[in-house]
User: Which sequence fits this backbone?
């Protein structure tokens, strides 16, 4: 039955760094999902005759959102939805399906690494036909629509059983329920040297992979245990749970505690890896050794010739401004293109679509390539395993060789969470006004060369984006400040600190960047304004 239902706008449906993320309770408000999805449809010229991918990380409330999207899509005349079985699709797998099936786009239901459950977060990311998240112009248009929406249209024919693979009709719309894993596995097998990794594992190389009770469990079991032959139990927390079993599914030094304890314990495996809620973030560990995401991007780029899918040549590399400059030295050495973008994957998509870059990454545990248009955790992990299989070196040896050749960017990120929004905005405003007067000033051993707002001119669509503030010192050290665009409560201030050393490569990061971090918090008056003497999370 076709129904048009009256609704009233919500004023808080502005997408952040990656889609709309809100507390589950917010999503549960009447018409909240419908308003948002209908607004997307309205601002892209409707969905009549179009095809979309739908799926997510299995978190609480996704099942309800999927059924709502089915009704809205059918009500708005969509031709077809392709949905992951049981509503499951990792973000990279969804991107692959959009590209593979040449669909008009997709809806990925995830709040990424934010906790899930009735008291956690839920989210919707909207991707266009590139397989990547919609650009700013589109999300601005969607936001405008959410502020005026007065009605939405559904076709209601009851709930659809998503557990069986196959095609069903829903009114005039087709629904194809697909294996969420198959295409993704085929893709990674085409990129990496699986026989070499198999051999490595057969010869006793030990892996631990933490899926954090989130979406990669079934993907990782298939790839690492079944295909690559790692022993059963290699993948831990392998069953996606609606509340991630209470875990905060963010693969970093704070939240991937179980894995860290294993990797820092006695008889540690050779290689440890973890992924986040929707499978796009990753963390790499050796025995008793942590690889920063910024260094990881540099190592991947530097070793592209070892990888079957890339050895014939790459276009270039990009990183977000907040990410360390490690990859810039690799790009220079290999004489490939190099770009620095605002935070968020969508800025890389234009660069990939126009063949300017092959690899990209962020300090926030994200890396990827033009094989899809999202970051890809399992891809990065397989890339590392391929390098290890090809070189016979351990994670630590690979990192040490890299630093010996290129020098080391000591790097840390400090997060100050749940700050009152006004306090955070005032802090940034004050910082912004202060910056010009800081150029040329000296703080201890550091002299400021540059202190300015980071403004990105997109070389492809000529859009201009401001994101954060960067202080550059005469020795190449850097401080970056920005407010998070993914939180769901208050504001989060992120301060990123980097110090470059050419030959002093074996120190503790905190020892090397601690002084700069103090300068950074002093300049921004963090303690006085927020009452926080210390960061809530350090990575
Ligand atoms: C954070 C990360 C950013 C990443 C985004 C989505 O955004 O910092 O690099 O793209 O999550 O995973 P932020 O909260 O800083 O806006
Ligand atoms: Zn994610």
Assistant:
């Amino acid at each position: 039955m076709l129904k048009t239902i009256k609704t009233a706008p919500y004023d808080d449906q502005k997408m952040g760094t990656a889609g709309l993320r809100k507390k589950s309770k917010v999503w549960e408000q009447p018409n909240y999902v419908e308003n948002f999805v209908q607004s997307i449809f309205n601002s892209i010229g409707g969905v009549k005759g179009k095809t979309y991918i739908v799926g997510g990380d299995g978190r609480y409330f996704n099942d309800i959102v999927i059924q709502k999207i089915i009704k809205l899509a059918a009500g708005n005349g969509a031709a077809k939805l392709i949905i992951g079985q049981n509503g499951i699709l990792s973000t990279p797998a969804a991107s692959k399906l959009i590209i593979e099936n040449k669909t008009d786009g997709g809806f990925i239901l995830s709040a990424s690494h934010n906790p899930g459950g009735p008291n956690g977060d839920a989210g919707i990311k909207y991707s266009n036909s590139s397989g990547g998240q919609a650009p700013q112009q589109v999300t601005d248009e969607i936001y405008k629509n959410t502020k005026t929406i007065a009605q939405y249209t559904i076709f209601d024919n009851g709930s659809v059983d998503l557990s069986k693979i196959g095609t069903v009709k829903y009114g005039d719309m087709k629904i194809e329920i697909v294996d969420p894993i198959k295409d993704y596995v085929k893709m990674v097998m085409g990129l990496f040297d699986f026989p070499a990794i198999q051999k490595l594992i057969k010869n006793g190389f030990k892996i631990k992979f933490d899926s954090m009770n989130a979406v990669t469990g079934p993907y990782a079991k298939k790839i690492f245990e079944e295909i690559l032959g790692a022993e059963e139990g290699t993948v831990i927390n392998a069953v996606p749970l609606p509340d991630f079993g209470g875990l905060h599914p963010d693969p970093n030094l704070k939240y991937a505690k179980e894995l860290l304890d294993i990797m820092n314990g006695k008889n540690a495996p050779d290689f440890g890896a973890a992924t986040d809620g929707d499978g796009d973030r990753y963390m790499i560990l050796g025995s008793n050794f942590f690889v920063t995401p910024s260094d990881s991007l540099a190592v991947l780029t530097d070793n592209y010739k070892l990888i079957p899918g890339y050895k014939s040549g790459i276009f270039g590399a990009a990183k977000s401004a907040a990410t360390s400059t490690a990859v810039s030295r690799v790009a220079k050495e290999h004489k490939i293109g190099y770009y620095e973008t605002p935070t968020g994957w969508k800025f890389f998509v234009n660069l990939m679509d126009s063949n300017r870059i092959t690899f990209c990454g962020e300090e926030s545990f994200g890396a990827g390539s033009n094989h899809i248009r999202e970051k890809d955790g399992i891809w990065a992990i397989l890339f590392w395993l391929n390098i290890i299989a090809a070189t016979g070196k351990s994670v630590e040896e690979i990192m040490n060789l890299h630093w010996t050749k290129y020098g080391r960017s000591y790097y840390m990120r400090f997060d100050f969470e749940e700050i009152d929004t006004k306090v955070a905005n005032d802090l940034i405003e004050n910082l912004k006004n202060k910056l010009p007067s800081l150029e040329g000033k000296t703080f201890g051993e550091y002299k400021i060369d540059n202190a300015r707002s980071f403004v990105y001119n997109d070389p492809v669509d000529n859009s201009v984006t401001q994101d954060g503030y960067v202080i550059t010192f005469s020795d190449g050290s850097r401080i970056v400040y920005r407010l998070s665009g993914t939180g769901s409560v208050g504001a989060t201030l992120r301060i990123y600190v980097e110090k470059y050393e050419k030959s002093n490569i074996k120190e503790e990061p905190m020892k090397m960047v601690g002084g700069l971090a103090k300068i950074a918090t002093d300049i921004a008056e963090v303690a006085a304004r927020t009452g926080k003497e210390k960061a809530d999370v350090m990575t």
Remarks:
- The two ends are 52 Å apart (CA to CA).
